[in-house]
Amino acid sequence: MHTLSFFLKLAHFSAAAILTTAALIAPHRAQAGAFNGLSSLNAALAGKGRTLVYCSEGAPAGFDVAQYASSTDYTASGGTIYNQLVQYERGTTKLGPALAKRWKISPDGRVYTFILRHGVKFHTTPWFTPSREFNAKDVVFTFRRMLDPDMPFRKAYPSEFPGAEFFGFDNIEKVEAVGPPHSYTVRFTLKSASEPFLGSFAVPAASIYSAEYAGQLLKADKVPEIKQKPIGTGPFIFEKYLKDATIHFKGSPDDWTPEDVQLSRLVFAITPYAELKTHPHLQVIGGENRNFALNLLAYNVKHPPLDNVDMRRALDMVIDKKATIDAVHFGHAQAGVAPLPPMQWSLGCRAMRGSNFSQWCEGSKARAFNALLEQAVRTLDIGQRTALYLKAQKIFKSEQPYTAIAYPINYYVLNKNVTGFKGYMFGATVFYGVGLKK
């Protein structure tokens, strides 16, 4: 379903305006409860500076973002608490520097070298005071934790990292600091060349953690606290989480991009989706905010009658995509015409483990399809790579393991006093650069 995200500048509203807005947010629950909840939150935030309240549709599973893969978890930590080595420029698919100020890719596409930014500080909280600034040691820790099950921190707190396979981190053969551990150069050597791999370093699952904080937790035998008491370098410092109710952050006074921290406080009010109606204080942003999402109908090719390719093709022909989009997305989606969203470069069987509902990664044609994708990833010439993707797409079309129904469009509903907001294509919401009119 398309995303509806709500921003409310509560600290500067009258009580009457709060009540009206609350009705829009939760029209199907007991109205008094909804009104009282937001009114109480407004009262608690009164006098606390430039505060933005974000109404989230769900609660995060935790704040150890590398463990999770939902947009709710990514919003609650990936773009608030943490930074990545590179980042997509807000509202675009263009990659730019973040914790890495520049990088170099070897001619064979196997070695990625990042020059890290100096002067980046980890958050200071009641549970952690950093003694040093961010450096290569933190990058090495972050990725070794995902890739090395024998690492002491990983053994003390066994975890699964869905992004490791999905974003290709399992293709990393070695990650190392160039020079001493506290240097500002880090090198990734891949098992096989991957031309589009740079984009993987921008996803929330690649958020950089503090090796020093991890060491403190390991020494104190409190490793699981990394999930409840996060430490990052991002624009907002985590303060507290009232389960299934609110998450409280404060703007980081030491952020390495101070112009991106325009809020004193950021509060998540966990609120279910609601039907939107016209309201004088709200504006809708959407229409071009597409992301990497795809709604599909998968056919289990291992069971009859769907093991018959003619049956799958017939179903693909008769599905009324427009009717489905109107019913499920209220008309706000782009009809699916290809096996992947327009902005996504490829998706092979290796990345689909655990969510391969069509069971189509076996058989000669499926293997040929996947081999073409793997070859394309290793091909540096864009013309040759495009030709390989077209061949793979023809195999997919002939086999029809699923029908692409729709590419959803993100919609955001903002208070008109909110400034600087831009959509984010991974389905999450980011708050750096977001402010309030004075």
From TrEMBL:
Residues 1-32 form the signal peptide. The keyword Signal applies. Keywords: Signal. GO terms for biological process: dipeptide transport. It comes from the Bacteria. InterPro entries: Peptide/Ni-bd, SBP_5, SBP_5_CS, SBP_5_dom. SUPFAM superfamilies: Periplasmic binding protein-like II (SSF53850). Residues 95-272 form the Solute-binding protein family domain. GO terms for molecular function: peptide transmembrane transporter activity. Gene3D superfamilies: Dipeptide-binding Protein, Domain 1, Dipeptide-binding Protein, Domain 3, Periplasmic binding protein-like II. Belongs to the bacterial solute-binding protein 5 family. This is Extracellular solute-binding protein family 5 (Putative dipeptide ABC transporter). It comes from Candidatus Glomeribacter gigasporarum BEG34.
